[in-house]
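Review box. Two proteins, two foldings.
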Amino acid sequence: MISAFEAVPAGRPDAILIALAPVFGSFTSCAAWRIPRGLNWVSDRSRCETCSVALAIRDLVPIVSFIVLRGRCRHCGERITPAWTIVELACLGVAIGAVALLPGHRSWAAAALGWLLVFLAALAWTKRAASTPTSTAG
């Protein structure tokens, strides 16, 4: 039986891993923000923390949307915390590091472990922010 990785041409698994890293970082940010607050982290739409408008797909492109929107909500113009983009960049860095140190299929396992650490760090940060009454994290 052929595995999914064997069906991908040589060199492509690394490129796919790096391309998907910011997407995983975006999901990591979402889950880390919502879990401590008891919010649905799987199916709820992402919203601006200030104006509560549901974000469109174009507003959710990891890293790129933050740069294009200059760190502000498209609807109300309020500042978006750079913390989520930092998590996306951290996941990208983990993937690049995994590919550099373990090229090939092993890089996926290394990246998954690194992403777990990024998630746990983001979760710890958001739990602390959620318990702070004057917090503006989000």
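Next protein.
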Amino acid sequence: MEVTGHQSRPGRVSVVIPTMHAADPRSLVDDLLTQQRSPVHELDEILLCVNSDRDMALAGPYTSPLISSIRALPVGSSYSARNAGWTRAKSELVLFLDDDCRLSPGYLEGAVGCLVNGGFDAVAGQVRMPLGDDASAAEVWDSYKHLRNELLVPNGVAVTANLLVRRQLWEDVGLFPESRVSGADLEWTQLLTTRGYRLGYCADAWVAHPPRKLRALLKKRVRIGRGQAQAGKSAGELLRTSSPPWPSTIREAIRKASLQLTLSRFAAVLLVAWASVIATNLGRISCILRSRSIRNHRPGSRPA
């Protein structure tokens, strides 16, 4: 990918939002424009990065001069879209957000203040999934299982649903692996911390992310499985993460959602958790079989 050579603007923020699959980022953009000025830091630009003509149409038009739409390489992954924005960002700080998030009040000031005052190279914020009393079993399991930066950061990794980084990091650490369908953010932040850069966590700079319904949750688990296989995880690693959850884990997920623990709810969440494990394994298997098929049918090769 071509990387621009302009000088970054100190003390300011470029926001990179991958906009894919007919998502509508207008609510998030409105939140950003509302918070564009704070006592210390200023929002410099909002980069909506897409992979298709359909998503390009949804990414505009906007009247604010702060907003630009960028067409990424047609790889079809959110990471290629993030890379397209990152390499074109003008500011010293680059903020990655998912297009379906909403910002907490004072988010920008809190996130930038945490990074600058804490001396961090990157800061991951909390991702909250608001659940109502009628939350489905899939939503409960999604909120328990995914996007939990508060648990990831102590292990040296984070997700890009809410991640602020110093722009120049790609010069040493590199960009996100574009071919990955899932997990490239965890891989990149692990590389970041193993090279000695500091990754912090900021609970006050939180975003709200809608929990997934069952269909969307299972599709995500298939992508996670494919991403794990793409990353070249060993059979042993994959087997260790293939077992269904313990009953105590199901009870913990329901308690985290602040819902009453009933037998019917326990059974429903347990079934969803099992289905998620199956979907993850299907993603792994499909990726492994596809890669073997490609190796066995290289251009110019002859069948055995």
